[in-house]
Amino acid sequence: MEPRFSARLTALQASPIRQILAVANRPHMISFAGGLPARECFPSFDLKVPPAVLQYGPTEGDDALRERLCEDLVQLGLPVTTDQIVILSGSQQGIDLVAKLFIDAGTCVASESPTYLAALQVFRFFGARFAPFTPADVENGNPFRERPAFAYVIPTFQNPTGYCYSDAERKALSRACDRETIPVFEDDPYRDLAYDPCDRRPVCAYLQKSPWIYQGSFSKTLAPGLRLGFLAASQMFVPHLVRLKQAADLHSNRLSQWLVLDALKHPDREARLAAIVEMYRRKRDTFDRVLHEYFSDLAHWEKPRGGLFFWLQLKVPIDTRLLLDSTLAHGVAFMPGEPFYVGSSPQPTATLRLAFTHASESEALSGLKILSAQLRRFRDEACVTNRALSHP
Fold this sequence. Notes:
By secondary structure, the chain is an alpha/beta fold. 39% of the residues lie in helices and 13% in strands.
């Protein structure tokens, strides 16, 4: 007899980015697919580990790390105390906990579209339906078609678009949520990777009535292999989130917490972060220059002011999922745009996401040249097909 699985398993789909990364990690493959930090920016650690770090710890996280994070979050304008902070086993766990906190089958979640595809994966798993919105909707002051259980937003160097909300847009979103006391779930993993001046004050810092959850990550500025993130939340949410985490993993890795705290307290912390930002700024500028050389006739894009990604809107509508099969055969990986949209079966969007932080300058040059050649071939074939259809 076949085992009987839970009904929600049917809603669980494999992550497209994980599947692509499995191919992208092959030798000699040039990958613009995953938002991978550059290896050369990883810190070195002194591993004289105190024995206490190897023992079980509190579900909320180690007190010293939470106290240090509290200091940083207060500086950002968040009205938070140490007991409102929970250390996560990666910020992906925060998305899972928030989904468990709010979502039943049919629960409405307001979300940008496009948005972070791993969040969509989790929300769908728990049965969410989506009310999509865009920054233009926020600016108009009415982003919500109906009252959602919460609004999920990445206002700073959004994934996948790289868009950064202006201060006016952040205030407009906070006002829209405050009007109906809609909880805000703000995902903010890229805020420290700013290459040009821009507004980065958390939306949660502007809220007057709505409860909120704000989360960040150490993956982009320290090392993703540590699998450590954090969230801060309105007091009403904290006991529930702690119990949900306790049921999942008891507590986050204490060795990783100790290493992160050591890095946060290090006297060279600011200098190290400035060096990472400068390295990524150069990579971004090189990437943008190569894009202008090879993609000017193929796509539109904005040079991101921070974060990890370029978001390209193609001038000819093609399905970038089909394009990916072709570029992988030529040794180049990228992320098609379709999976980032909230529709369950999105139509071709003629968009793609390119991560610029991991590839070297020479890899960026050769990889983008190959990608543009394959894209140009697809464009020309699409034009021939369209002419044939219009003149039978």
